[in-house]
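User: Batch of two.

Assistant: Item 1 of 2:
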Amino acid sequence: MTTLNDAHFSVEGLLQMARDATGLSDFGPDSFRPGLEHLVAAINELPLTEMGLIRTRNSVLGVLIGRLGVWQHRQTHPEVAAEEIKQPLFVIGLPRTGTTLLIGLLGQDPDNRVPLMWEVSMPCPPPEAATYETDPRIAMVTAGLEAVDGLNPEVMAIHPVGAQLPQECIGFIAQECLSYIFYATLPIKGYNDWVDAQDQTAAYRWHKIFLQHLQSRHRKQRWALKAPSHMNFMADLFETYPNAVILNTHRDPVDAVTSHCSLHWKLWQQALGSCDKQMAGEQITEMIDNWLRRYLDWRDANPQMDSQIHDIDYSELVADPIASVKRIYRRIGLEVSPAFERGMQQFLADNRQDKFGRHRYTPEEFGLTKAQLASRYRRYRERFCVAKP
C-alpha cells in the first residue's frame, strides 16, 4: 500500500491511495489522466520541504478522492444528471482586482448559491439544505487547514481562506487535473503552460457535473461563481453555459499584478522553504500577459457576447461595495432585497480589508518597475480605461 511517507509522487500510487481511502475504484472518464501525469511529473521536479510534501500530497489526493465520490454518487443517483444550471453568474477579472470581495458580497443574496470551501473539499454526500450551516464537514475542513498551516497569517492578509468562505471554480476543476490551482501553490510553470494549451471541454464538463452534484440536495435560484482563470477560456465557458452572465472586474495591472506576484511568492515559499522573488515576478507577469492577450482577442472577436458581460471598475467597487452591487443587479435585471443588503452590510463588517493585517509590496521586490508593467499591459489598460495618470 502506498503511504504518505513515500517522498516520490507516482500516478498509480496516488490513484491507489484514493481507492484505499474510499473503497471506490471508478474515477469516471479518463480525461483527467493526462493532466494528472503532467502534474505529478512537475511536482517530482521540486525540492519540497516536509510540510510542502504533505500539503501537496494532501491536495492532489483530496481532488482524486473527491472525484471518486462525485462520480460514484452520480452513478447511483442518475437523476443528478438532469439538474439544470440556470444562468450562472461568473465573477472574472485579473487576480487582486476585487473578485474575492465581489463573490463574497454576492454570496449574501439568499437567492445565490456560492460554493464554499468545505463542500468543495468534501463534496460527498451532497450538502443538505437543512444542515448546510451546521454540517460536521465545516469543522473538519477548518481543522485540516489549521493542521497544515493553511491559515498562515501572511497568506490570509492577501487572500483569506476558510471553510465557510467562497471557493473558486479552480478548486473543483482540479478534479479534472486541468486547474490553475496547482500553479497557485507550486512553481510548476511547465504544467501551467501545458494546461493553458489544452482543450478545456473536459474541464468545463466536469465543472457542470460538480455543480449538479452540489445543488442536487440544496438548490437556489442561481449559482454565483468565481475564478480569474476563466478569462483564459471564455469560449469553453460559454459553450458549457450559453446563458452565463459575466461580471468582469477591472483594475490597473500595474497594481494588481504586483500584488499577485506577492501571493504566489508566499505560497511557493511555503512549499519550498525559500523562493526567488525575481523568478516569481517574471513568471507571474508572463502568465498575466498571456491571460490578457487571450481574453482581449476573444472579446474583440466576439462583440455579440457583450450583452452578457458587465465590466466593473475596481475603484468604484471598493469605494462603495453595496452601491456597486446594486448597479450590477440593475444591469442584469435583478433586485437587491432588504435581506441581501443587510447581509452585505454584515459581511463587510465581518471581513474588513485589513482584518488579517496589511498586505505591503512593491514592484521592485520582484524585479519589476511600474513603467515596465504599464508598457507591457498597455492594450488592456487603454481598452478598459484603468491606466492611472
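Item 2 of 2:
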Amino acid sequence: MACCPAAWNRRAVIAGALAAGVDRSRSVHAAGSDVIRLGFVGCGNRGTGACREALSTKYPVRLVAVGDLFRPRLETSLKNLLKYEELRRRIDVPEERQFVGFDAYQKVIECGVDLVLLTAPPHFRPIHYAAAVKAGQHAFLEKPCCVDAPGYRLLVAANDEAKRKGLSVGVGLQRRHQRNYLDAIAKIREGALGEVRLVRTYFNMPGGRSASPKPPEMSEMEYQIRHWNVFCWLCGDHLIEQACHEIDVANWVLEAHPVRAAGMGGRQIRTEGDIWDHHVVEFEYESGARHLCQARQQPGTWSHVSDHVLGTKGAMTIGVGAWGLGVLTPRSLRAKGYQGDNPYQREHDDLQASIVGDGPRRFEGDYGAISSMTAVLGRMATYSGRRVRWDEAVASDLRLAPARYAFDADPPVRPDATGRYPTAIPGVTKAL
C-alpha cells in the first residue's frame, strides 16, 4: 500500500532544510498557514486522550495517519475522537492511512507527518522514538520512555540526534506543566527550603488493571501485549509505569539523578502477569540527599499520591489533595472546564508552540529518559535485593524483549503448567 502519494513535496523541502542544518522547529511553520500534520501510534485509552489534547490546541493541526497493533482498537479510537464536533474538522484519516501491525509505527512515520504521538506500550517507546527522530519528526512520548537499560541508551542516542536536528520533543510527565508544581519548584530554587536533604513520594493505588484469562485460540504473545500493564517486559512494572511521575519530581527537585538505589518489595495479592504489587525504594544522590519512594497496587490499602520535600530551612508538600490523589484525570478536568490549568492539555500546547516558534523551545527527551531510567534502577534494586549503582545500571545488557516481534513469536516470559508466570525473587533474580 503506497502511503501518502507525492507526500508530499513539502517533506522533500523539510528534508533538504534538515540536511542544510536549518532549525526545523522555527522554520517549517513560519508562514503561519502551514498545518501541523499529526501522526498517532498506539490507540489505547491514554493514547486517545493524548491525541484529543494534541488536536485541541490553538494551532493549526490535523490528524492524518494512525497506527496500532489491533484494528478494533484503532477503529474505536477514531470513533471516540470523531464524536467530538470540534475535532472532526481536524481529522483526515482515510483507510489508506490507517495501519495495523508491528510495523504500523513505521508506516505512520512514512506518511510525512510533522509531529508523531508515541503512546504504544512502554516497551516499544525507544524503538518508535528513534525511528521518528531518524525521519526528522517532532515527537510526543507518553511516559515511561523505556523499561530497560538498552532502551535507555537508545533514547539517549535518539535525543542527541533530535537536538542536532532542532526537533521539539514532549514527554507525558505532565507535572512539569502543572502550576502548583511549577510554583513550588520556583520557591525551592529561590532557596525557600535551604538545601534539600529528603524527598518522600507516594504512588499508592488500590489496584491496577486485571488481566482476563487467555482464550485458547490466542497466542501467548498477543495475550501479553493486550494485557501489557501486568508484564514487566512491556510496562517495566508499575514502579516504572506509574511511579515514574513521582520519581521525575524527585529528580526535578534535586536537579540530578541518583547515584545508587536500594529497596524491597514483592507480590502478595497480584495473580496476573509477572510484575510485583508493592515497592519501597531509597534513592541516594551525589549530594547525599535521599528520595524515599513508595509504590503500591493493592486493593483495600491506603490510596495516596503525593510529594514532600524537606530542606535545611523548612519543608514543603508539592502535590497532594485533588491533584496529588489523581482525582482530576484528563477526562474530569475537561468536564470541570479546567482548560486554563489543565497540565495534560498544556503539555501539548507547549509542544506545539515550540514547533511553530510561538514560545520557548521544548525539549523534554532528556528528563524523560533519565527519570524513566531512574525508575528502572529502582526496579533493579528491588527485584534483585541488591544495592545498585547508576553507572552499572545504565551499562546493563539485560534487554527485556522477544527475539522477534510477531504474534507467533515467543514472548520473553511464559507461564508454567499451572498458568502462573515466574516472578522476581530477591537474592536470586538477575536484574542487571
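The CA atoms of residues 211 and 304 lie 23 Å apart.
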